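agent> step 3/5: call structure_predict on target 'Ubiquitin carboxyl-terminal hydrolase' (Drosophila rubida).
agent> reason: downstream docking stage needs a structural representation; sequence fetched in step 2, passing through unchanged.
tool.input:
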Amino acid sequence: MSETGCRHYQSYVKEHSYDTFRVIDAYFAACVNKDAREKKAIHCNCFECGSYGIQMYACLHCIYFGCRGAHITSHLRAKKHNVALELSHGTLYCYACRDYIYDARSRDYALINRKLEAKDLQKSLGWQPWIPSAKETNLLLANARRRLVRPNQTIGLRGLLNLGSTCFMNCIVQALVHTPLLSDYFMSDRHDCGSKSSHKCLVCEVSRLFQEFYAGSRSPLSLHRLLHLIWNHAKHLAGYEQQDAHEFFIATLDLLHRHCVKAKSEHESKCNSGTGGSSSTAGGGNSTSSSSGSGGGGTATHCYGQCNCIIDQIFTGMLQSDVVCQACNGVSTTFDPFWDISLDLGETTSHGGVTPKTLIDCLERYTRAEHLGSAEKIKCSACKSYQESTKQFSLRTLPSVVSFHLKRFEHSALIDRKISSFIQFPVELDMTPFMSEKKNAYGDFRFSLYAVVNHLGTIDTGHYTAYVRHQKDTWVKCDDHIITMASLKQVLDSEGYLLFYHKNVLEYE
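tool.output (status=ok):
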């Protein structure tokens, strides 16, 4: 396909330049501002039938809008005009060629308009195909023989040395490295660190680890640099005693989020000298359970939806909490971001003393309405008094990767114990029943299992291992520096402490 369109479009550009295309694309295809959206809503209807069709065309030779099919083609034929712009996707159509055409310069102007639209609406830019830069093109030409990954190859698998009760860290690193979207991000070298001391940046170290994993070597890796960075930034995890894998997971996400925000602010301050850097806020945590905060027991403090770092893009969802007053039936709704969902496994009097047997049981119990007794009265904003109420959790939005924490460690004033009961979990999980808006929910909420972290032993002494999905139907067991093949049955028969699922279908804004 030519990058300058067809000969008819070239003739059009010589006669009219790109100005008409830029204006029509800005106002009726991209809609770069409020004024453009108003003009499109008022004027963008078919001149023949008056309808506001889904696929409307604008003639680039004159002022004319027409529906797809007979109306636009009859106009182009009668007026002997060749070029029209399809307004839903901003694609050029040549009537003489009877085909859509591509022009590189026009697409550059259209991309500028799409960026202006995204900025005005405060939304992310839609998906764009990857076009290699000059540097990337030279690298591809210089490395014509690239590695071909075949089935049953071990590239991407590396054992991790135990540095002294660090199996909890090794398992979380294995799960993160095998997170599809995260590996795509780091393997495409997307992290741009503006820090002068990149050796102190946790994101730079994680990026280096991804490169090491996929370098092709089979020798075990040592995570001493990562461990040292985490010790420096999360003091409660410092030391050689055994730590909780879930706590380490949340702390790692929090630190990665903070470093991403810091790197972005430093990069922007370099680009815009003289402007103040944005403040770095705490990056989420497990707002679904008071026992699993980020860092030293903190909860999510960043504002959901305002951070666009890779961690929040992949792992952040939104929890909805509805409190219903028993006196007036008034509903108070709050929203909280979460990085994972902690699920109780023990008996609870509020749910009839029944212990869950499956992950679905745990989720049903988690999202079931709970009556708050007289000892937990909440002040109703409508009644202006303290009333008994019911509280119910549901999932407002789900992240691309949802992780479940099965709360196997129970701490009380009387006894600390581990719940070792078997919880059945599926390979494919549909989260639709647990969404806040089940009927009107937009998107596909089916997820696939890709990693499981297990704890073997008691609450005092134990060992962490992990199962990760290496390729589509290939599972491996990661036991520190030992990597062995595993069957799906072994994965599903394991005890399960942390379960990682990724979304099957990704939606672009």
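agent> step 4/5: record observation. The domain at 316-503 is CATH 3.90.70.10 (Cathepsin B; Chain A).
agent> proceeding.
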